[in-house]
Amino acid sequence: MIKEILEYQALDAKLVSIEKEIASSPAKQTANKMVEYVKSAQQTLVTLEHNASKLILEYEKLNNQYQNAIKDVDKLSKQKFENLSKDELRENANLTTQINSNILNIERNIALLSDKIVKILKEFEKTKEQAKTAKLKFEQNKNAYNKLVETKQAAIEKLQQELAKVEKTVDKDILKKYKELRGDNKFPIFVPLINESCGGCVMNMPRARLDKLKANKILECENCHRMIYLMEDKDK
Ligand SMILES: [Zn+2]
After folding, report:
1. How far is the CA of 236 from the centre of ligand 1 (A)?
2. Residue 177 within a domain
């Protein structure tokens, strides 16, 4: 009963090893990394675009202020000075100075804002370029990964055929349990009892569980859920 599933498992180990090689291939890891990179770059682009539109609004607001200030200066300069009193002239001169200083201020702010906008646009272009490179790198690595899968395909199919043959000799319930645990990244699934402990996770088994194992020949480990079997005398 145990012999057949162990034979099956030994064969399956070869398949697991190929699967691991494929799953841990650098090409796959790089491709996955590039996907993450492109996602984060897209997030950055959205943020930059949002910031740029905010700055452009601010720029338009300043530009309006600038135009209005210019108009005010223009209006002041067109006043007929001969009709004005001394106080009014002084006030007029003060106002002109104030508006002029305001204009300088606005110009300075516009220059600062322009710098910021240019910086954001540069950052935007840079991020876009990096995302493009990452996409290319993703494609290259995806192709490399697909090629790796392709080269392993024949070996995989051969093993699958062999497994299908051996499968017929294995007890149905045991095989069902095996297949349930197969996807859990636990290999080997069937492990011997070693020094009264699970051969997978080395958890010590209490007396009652040992008795149960002796009676059933197979018992699921309460800790790692592998199937523990008793080695037959000839195996020891
Ligand atoms: Zn265990």
Report:
1. 20
2. yes
Report CA 142 to chain centroid distance, whole Å: 16
- Calpha distance 200→29 (Å, rounded): 28
Asked if pLDDT for residue 226 goes beyond 60, the answer is: yes
pLDDT-wise least confident of 47-61, 75-89, 142-156: 75-89
Question: Could you tell me the residue range of the domain that residue 202 belongs to?
Answer: 172-230
* Cα 179 to Cα 15: distance, rounded to the nearest angstrom: 14
CA of 188 to the centre of ligand 1 (A): 11
Among residues 125, 154, 183, the one where a domain terminates is 154
pLDDT tens string 150-195: 999 999 999 999 999 999 999 999 999 999 999 888 899 999 999 9
User: Phi/psi at 194 (nearest 5 deg)?
Assistant: -125, 120
163, part of any domain: no
Residue 56 within a domain: yes
How far away, in angstroms, is 209 Cα from ligand 1 center? 12
| Tally of structural domains, the chain | 2
191 alpha carbon to ligand 1 midpoint, in Å? 8
Q: How far is the CA of 176 from the centre of ligand 1 (A)?
A: 19
Residue 97 within a domain: yes
Domain co-membership, 149 together with 176 = no
Distance from residue 161's CA to the centre of ligand 1 (Å): 30
Give 18-34 pLDDT, tens digit per residue: 999 999 999 999 999 99
